[in-house]
Amino acid sequence: MLYAAYVTQARGAASNLTPTDVNFLHLTSGYTNIPDSTSEASICPQTDSPDTVNVCLTLTSPSSQDPKEPFGYQVAADIGYFYYNSGHMEVHASDYMGLGKIPVEPLGSPQESLGSVFAAELGAGSPFNYTEPLMSGGISTTGAVYAGVLRGVLSGSLAFGDALGTDPVCTQPSTCPSALYTPFPQEAWHYSMGHWVEDNPATNGDGAFSSGGEFGFYPWIDSTKSYYGIISHYQASSAYSTIECGRLIRAAFMTGVEQTGTLPIN
């Protein structure tokens, strides 16, 4: 979600997002060669300085779909299909946003890093930090800084509010022929610009816009774009369980109804 917010702000408005931007931000570009993270091991580990997105894209992995090809390889069979993967945003950052050569850590003068570039666009109270040059998962910040971004979205000071829920694509391969992979196969959600739209009627989805993290970080904006919430805790590989908890909290707040079951009562 933060990367999509950055791109939208850099473009000046959601209406300025190009068809190419949209293709990358709703994960249908075919750049699906970065392996899914199943542990805390870095996908783009620290390298000799400068540690950049471009360096990350040259790496390969035996667990990737095409092990002899680099992370920046476009898988022809995946083009036009939803495939949840870090490669989309990584290639977009390099080829379309001019971020490919900006290091994770500030080097020399001027003191520019990926975190400072993001902070300049998103107006955060303190700089973001990147633990690795991975747009979709390398950022390190606090719940308070992230909350500042969400407040900016709701107030209109950040352009991302108009991008919420736009150009949604279906994500569940079992029910959608244009979807190949989702980390949440139990949910027939849609995916918009760098975020989920929680609109699965089978789980009483309320249409919230969210971005569940693999290690238990779960921010959301409600469907009316009036409220936000964050669960910020650490628990390895707990993305979906944190989402389940978060949506119950959201339902209780939005409806005033105590939530005693596993699915929200909306």
3D structure, described in words:
The chain has 266 residues and is an alpha+beta fold. It has one domain. Helices cover 27% and strands 11% of the residues. It contains seven helices and ten strands. The strands form three sheets. It has a six-stranded antiparallel beta sheet, with helices on both faces. A two-stranded parallel ribbon has the order 1-5. The model has no long low-confidence stretch (mean pLDDT 90).
List keywords for this structure.
7 helices, 266 residues, alpha+beta, 27% helix
Topology:
Blueprint: H1 2-11, H2 19-25, H3 53-57, E1 82-83, H4 87-96, H5 114-122, E2 129-130, E3 139-140, H6 143-155, E4 169-170, E5 179-181, E6 190-191, E7 196-198, E8 208-210, E9 217-221, E10 228-232, H7 239-255
Parallel strand pairs: 1-5
Antiparallel strand pairs: 2-3, 4-6, 6-7, 7-8, 8-9, 9-10
Short summary:
The chain is of the alpha+beta class and 266 residues long.
